[in-house]
# Entry
Amino acid sequence: MYKNLINLFKENEGKGAVGAFNLHCFEMLPSMIHAAEKLEVPVIIQTSLGTAQYIGFKPLIAAVKALAQESSCSVALHMDHCKDIDALKEAIDLGYSSVMYDGSALSIEENIKNTKEVVAYAHANGVSVEGEIGSIGGAEEGVVVEKDAAMYTKPEDALHYVAETGVDALAVSIGTTHGQFKSKAKINYELLTELKAKLGDTGLVLHGGTGVSDEDMKRCVREGMKKINVGTELNKSYIEVVSKTFTADDVTPLTSLRGLLAPANERIAEIITDKASLFKL
Ligand code: 13P
# Structure
């Protein structure tokens, strides 16, 4: 079943957070959806604009929809961190079920103005919208926020932004960093509690999932996170497994490209299974 985030959050109410996994290439897609199906959880496949352009909007959307249709789990296709409103409108027109407008580098009023435009267009097409307030540090496929520019989400700004824009989900900055794989984040739980109390039903989103320990993942889910993003770990693991297979003594990878990719796809399924299990209450 192909759905938007509002439907996924409803379906998953009281069951934990929905995993949102960054797709880095076409090949890893089926294993992501099959892993979620096996675990009987909904799943969000998310792409950067760069990945969508690399694969092509139409083939990507068609493939996700086809896999979703034959799957027993609910699947959303979400555009991650996008600053380009025209590109978001194109994604909506062509069939993404959810989009994120990232105006976090703008002034709050400008961010609100642009987000409102995206929300009006998306909601008219049955598509959900994620926004961002505060600024999550680190690098995520083309979106780089220097350490000095990273900023905790201010609860009063978040409340103002959500009330004005009507976003369905909100990325909050509470201490995680995009692309953090060498160390673990220190999460500001006091801030998370305050945000949860102020924002009630808005789906809070944790970015930078690669740098979050298993204990913190579980605690964030208990404290009310609705969507948790994991990207870098999939990218890094795919490359590691492909390199290992390629340099192994076995000649299969040299005679069959599938022989090279299949073990990496299996690793992707394992990661989705491990992470999504942590997201269950
Ligand atoms: P990581 O790449 O650090 O897991 O973060 C993913 C993310 O938040 C995508 O927006």
User: Anything to note?
Assistant: The mean pLDDT is 94. The pocket of 1,3-dihydroxyacetonephosphate is lined by residues 22, 80-81, 140, 178-180, 207-211, 229-233 (CB under 6 Å). The CA atoms of residues 74 and 131 lie 22 Å apart.
